[in-house]
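> @MW can you paste both from yesterday?
MW: sure, first one:
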Amino acid sequence: MSIITLNTRSLPDSAVTTAKIAADAVTDAKIADDVIGTEHLTAGEVDATALATNAVTTAKIADSAVTAAKTSGVTSDMFRNIMINGDMSLAQRGTSVSSISSGTAYDTVDRFSRNIGSGGTWTISQSTDVPTGQGFAKSLKMDCTTANGSLSSNSEFVLRQNVEGQNLQYLKKGTSSAESTTLSFWVKSNKTGTYICELVDNDNSRQISQSYTISSADTWEKKEITFAGDTTGAFGNDNGSSLTVTWWLVAGSDFTSGTLSTTWTSSTNANRAVGQVNLADSTSNEWYITGVQFEVGTSASDFEFLPVDINGFRCCRYYQQVGLDMYQYRYMPSTAQNWSGGAHLGTAAINFPMRANPTTITSGSWTGAGHSATDNNCTPGSLTSIGGGFNTIHRFSWTANQNSSALGKGVQFYTNGDTPDLAFDAEL
C-alpha cells in the first residue's frame, strides 16, 4: 500500500472545513500574533473574570465615560472618616479629669465632649487600654466614682462629637439620594447589655437611634451600626454644628419611655435611648471606646489612621494651645494717681486656622510685679479676646492693678512657667 503525502499544495482551497478540525485542536500556539480583532469577539462575552487585575487603566477610559451615577457615595480614600481624633490619640486639655457630675464640656481627648446630668459622678481619662493588634495606642475611659442606681427622669450621660455642616454635604441629606452611613468603633465595659448610639440633625431637629450590645464583660468588641439616609431636611452648608454623633451611657425615663427611633424622625426625647443600660449603677462600672469611624456606606471599612500632624491640624481647628512668653513694662506717673484697671494689649500667633474667631483661655502663671522687689502689687486680671481673626495674629487684652507705692516707678507684667499659657477655643 502506497502512502500519500499531503502538503499545502495537495489541498484544494477551502478543503479544510470546521467539520475536519477536531475539538480543541487549534491551540494558542497555532494562532498568529495580533490576528484576533474586535470583530471576533461576541458582544457581552468579555466579563470581569476575563480581565486581569489592574488591566483597566486611565488611558482605556473614554473622556466623560465615568458618570456621577457610577461614583455615588464615593469619597476620597483619605478623610473618609467624618470623625476627628477617632483613635483618641490627642488630648490637648490633659489626660484626666475627675469628679465630673454635671454640665457640658470638652474634658480630655480632643473633639469629644460629654453632657452629664444626675447620672452619677465620673472620672474621664485617656487610657492605654486598647484592643490587641488593631494599631491603637489610646482609648477614652469613663470610670464611675459615685453611683446612681435610682435615676431621675432627666438623668443622662452622653459622649458626643459635633460635625460642621459644610463637611457633610456629600451625604446629600434632604434629597432622594441621601446616603446611608455606618458608625464603627471598638468598645469595652464590665457592664454587658444594650447601649444606644444616636445621630441628631441639629439644623432640622431630627434624630435616628440604633442599639448595640456589649456581649462579653471586660472584652474589647468591634461594633458596626448603619443609619439610613434622611430624605428630609438638608444640612446647612456652613461652619455650624449640623450633626451630633452620640453614645448614651446613662438615660432616665425622659429618654427611654417611648419607642426607639430607628428611622429618621422629628426629635422627641422619649424615643432617643430606649433600652439603654444604666452604666452609673455601680462604682465598679467602666466604659472604654476607641477606633471611632463614621463614613458613607452600609458597611465599615478598616479604621483610617491619619499621620499625627494631620490629626493635630484637624483638632487645632477647634482648640489649640499656645506657649506664650510675654513681657510688658509700663512706667507709672509720679503724680498722685494710681494705675487701676488699665487695659493693655498683647498678641499671640494662632498656629492653625480655626473654625471661627476663638475665645481666649488662660492657663499657667501670669504674674505682675513692681520694678523693684518691694513694689510687687501688680495683679493680672482677666484676658479678653478682642479679635484679629481666626487664622492670623490674635489680639487680646488684660487688666492689672498697682497700688500707690508704684508711683513714679515701672511695672512689669509677664508670663511665668513652662506650661502652655494661652488657649484658643472655637469648639462647636
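MW: second:
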Amino acid sequence: MQKTHVFSLSLLALICSAQVQAGGLALYGGSIDNAALSNAGAAARAQGADTISGNIAGLTYVKGTQIHGGAAVLWGDIKPDLDETNQSGGNSSNALNPVLAPMGYISHQLDDQWTIGFGSYGDFGDELDYDNDWAGRYFMQNAKLIGASLVPSIAFRANDQWSFGLGLRAMYGMVDLQLATANDRLGVTCTAGNCPGPDGKVKYEDEEWGYGVNAGIIYSPQEGTRIGLAYTSEVDLDFNGDLKLDGVGGGFVLPKQDLEDGLDAKVTVPQTATISLFQQLDAQWAVLASANWQDHSEFSDIGIQIDDLGVDTNADLHWKDTYHASLGLQYQATPQWLWNAGVGYDTSAVDDSHRVWGLPASDIARASVGAVVKLDEATSIHAAYMLAWLGDVDVGESRHAGAANAKVTNGKLQDAYVQYLGAGLTMKF
C-alpha cells in the first residue's frame, strides 16, 4: 500500500493531487433534480432548463422560456486513521471543508424545432484541509480544486422521435494546493519531531480557462419513452502558476529561486459518455436509469515542467476508467408534488495501492431523495439530498523508500462519506 515519489520533495505529488481531484469525486450536482435521482435518467429526463447539464438535446422538450437557479452545499467526513508512519504528528481531524456549488440555467423556445439556452454549473469541486501537524503533511496538507462550466447551447427537434443538441463549454478551473516539507537533508532521518528546523511550506495556486464541447441525442420511440445519449469532450486546464516556497531549507533538491520562476502543470478533465432511459409507466410513476463512462485511463500520465530549468518529468498515476450506474423513480403524488428518489454506484479511478491523500478516490455508493413543489403554473421549488458513501478507504504514500530520510504514512479513512443538500427555483414565462 505504498507509492513512491522520486521528484524533489513532493513537487510531483502536489500537482498529481490536483489531477486526481479533477477526475475524482463527481457528485452530479449540477442539477438539483439529477442529484435527487443519483443521476438516473440525466441524459433522457428533459424536464427543465437544467437539462443542459445532462443532455442539451432535452431542451427541445422544454416549452416557452424557463429560468432555473439554485445552489447546493457539500460536506461530510474524510478523517485519516493512520496505522503506519515514521513522521511526527498523528491523525488529522475531518479534512473535508464544506463546498458551495451555485448553478443557473435559462432556455428559450424559438419555434417548434429550435431551442436555445445557457447553463452555468459546477463540474467538480472539493476542499481538503488536513491539520497542520498531522503525520501526512509532507504528502498533502491543503487541497482545493474547482471546475465550473459556462455552456451556451442550441437544440434541434427533427421530428417527434429525434432531437439533437450541441453546446460550447468554457470551463473555469482553480487550483490551490499546499504541503509541508521537512527541513532535513539527505542522510538525516526526520522522525518524532527530530528535524533540523520547523517545516517549510510548498504552495501552488493558479486559475485558468479550458474549452470543449457538449453534445447529445434523444430518441423517443413512443410518447413517454425517451432514450438519451450525452457526450462531453475532454477539457485541458493548462496551469502556469508560481510555486511558492516558505521556510524551505536545504532539504529541497532544487534552488528556491529557480522553483519560483514558474511551474507548468496540465490537468485534463476526461471525456465522458452517458446513456439514459426515461420511461413513464402511468400518470403517476416513471422509472429512470443511467450508465456513464469517464475516460480516466487515457490521462494517467501527467507532465511537469519548471521554467528556466529545463526540468521536464512525467509520472504514471495508474488511473483506470470509471463507470457509473444508477436507477431512479419519480412519483407524481398530486398535481403539485413530484417526488424523486435514486440509487447509484461509481467505480474508483485508482486501486488501493495507488491511492493518495490528496484525494482518496474510492468506489462510491449513492442514495438520494428530493421533491419538486409546484407553487403555481409558473413557479416551482426543487430540493434534493444525496448521501455518497465511500466507507473504509485504504490510503498510503511513501517517499525516498530505503533511504535514511524515507517518509511513510499509511492508513485508512473509516466510514468516509460526503453529503449533498441543494435547493432551486424554476420560473416559466
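> thanks! The chain is about 5% helix and 55% strand.
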